[in-house]
Design a protein that fits this description.
Helices cover 39% and strands 16% of the residues. The protein is an alpha/beta fold and 416 residues long. Helix 4 (122-136) links the parallel strand 7 (116-120) and strand 8 (140-144).
Length: 416
């Protein structure tokens, strides 16, 4: 290995662990592929405050705390704690995250020679990474993934987003809409680049529809919709459920698969089940729970149309995952959704908050004869390999620039 090559600290508070195996899989998918080309280690700070464990007596799933260190697929993953009160002082989360991570990153720099911090989400992670970069004389790259849009409308957080962008040597955005936001916030055009997420076409490929429906106990000739995501307000499962009665007259055999579970954002399953009962849809809406990625191809292959009525997204991996299974997509026009569903032969994009438009789009999608092979081919053109090539080139360029600026991986970091 070239001693001058980038040695990355992947820095993200949203990363899988044994206690939260489904968190941040899209980050791990990308960076573990980068790790096949460059040395990486992961630092995933976790919020904590004194007495936090007592809250689990009333809320058992509240902030599950992983061990201090894990090894995933041969990659070291560290989980330092940082002080964070729930719902309070959010404008200080970035500083405390950096403070809680400093010793871990300093040791990694000293012992393993890490020379670049690759952060995900601008706040608080990107802001914290910027502070660590300044304290430890390490260059920073930052990937915008979707939370930046609502944060930019928060008058307390917006200046911190600006600071995070200013301190980063590169800003990657998973969609052009996020790149445009970064530019409006003052990011240098020459230091920003769109690098969308990719799809694993081996893991996500069509399964035999008949077998997929038998596995899920669905009628062979039913019309089936499917959504995948955390059961939270933002993802919009309730927005799909509310329009199902409009579709039943023309599709009396309609079924809807809900794939997902609780997340740190919340858990709406009980409310969704109540909504289903109130609308008389029991037996038509099927709650499959959270499924590991290697099992998602089965409900996707059992369906006719994928729908995502989300309120906010950066780049929704699940859209490409559905397409890789040959499934047309109906999604709301937020974030990078229109950049994924970019052609009429892939699906439809509708305005957010317009139930009538969503119902019309689903009606049309259920009635249309789709070229599923063409949809699959589009997904095949958007694998992770091309994305990783871009990222490795950029990391190498940032490393060269840092060497020219006198940042030394061997130098000891200074205390904050």
């Amino acid at each position: 290995m070239n001693p001058d090559a980038p040695r990355l600290v992947v820095y993200s508070s949203l990363f899988p662990s044994l206690v939260q195996p489904g968190a941040g899989l899209f980050i791990r998918e990308r960076l573990f592929r980068v790790g096949r080309r460059l040395p990486i280690v992961v630092v995933s700070p976790r919020p904590w405050f004194p007495g936090q464990g007592l809250l689990r007596l009333w809320h058992p799933g509240y902030r599950p705390m992983p061990a201090r260190q894990e090894v995933q697929q041969g990659v070291e993953v560290y989980y330092p704690r940082f002080f964070a009160l729930p719902g309070l002082l959010r404008q200080w989360d970035g500083f405390f995250m950096a403070l809680g991570s400093w010793l871990t990153v300093w040791r990694l720099k000293r012992r393993q020679g890490v020379n670049l911090i690759d952060a995900h989400f601008a706040y608080p992670d990107g802001y914290a990474a910027g502070l660590l970069g300044r304290w430890l004389r390490l260059p920073v790259t930052l990937t915008l993934r979707g939370t930046e849009m609502p944060h930019s409308r928060n008058p307390r957080l917006r200046p911190l987003l600006v600071e995070a962008l200013r301190r980063a040597q590169r800003v990657f955005a998973v969609s052009d809409s996020l790149r445009q936001l970064a530019l409006r916030l003052g990011a240098a055009p020459g230091a920003t680049r769109v690098v969308g997420n990719g799809v694993d076409i081996e893991k996500f490929q069509p399964r035999a529809r008949g077998e997929a429906r038998r596995r899920l106990d669905l009628p062979e000739h039913a019309r089936v919709l499917v959504s995948v995501g955390a059961l939270v307000e933002r993802k919009g499962f309730h927005r799909v459920i509310e329009i199902l009665p409009r579709l039943l007259p023309s599709h009396p055999d309609l079924h809807y698969l809900v794939v997902g579970g609780a997340s740190p954002e919340g858990d709406l399953e009980s409310r969704l089940r109540a909504q289903v009962a109130e609308l008389g849809l029991t037996g038509r809406v099927h709650f499959l729970g959270a499924l590991p990625p290697e099992q998602l191809a089965w409900p996707l292959s059992a369906a006719d149309v994928f729908v995502l009525a989300t309120r906010n997204e950066g780049w929704a991996n699940v859209l490409l995952e559905a397409m890789a299974c040959g499934l047309p997509v109906v999604a709301t026009d937020v974030g990078g959704n229109a950049e994924v569903v970019r052609r009429d032969d892939l699906g439809a994009v509708v305005p957010f908050g317009d139930p009538a438009a969503l119902a019309r789009a689903l009606e049309g999608a259920l009635a249309k004869a789709w070229d599923r092979a063409a949809i699959r081919a589009y997904a095949e053109a958007n694998t992770w390999d091309g994305r990783v090539d871009i990222l490795v080139d950029e990391f190498e360029a940032v490393r060269r620039e840092a060497q020219g600026a006198g940042m030394s991986a061997g130098a000891r970091g200074t205390a904050p």
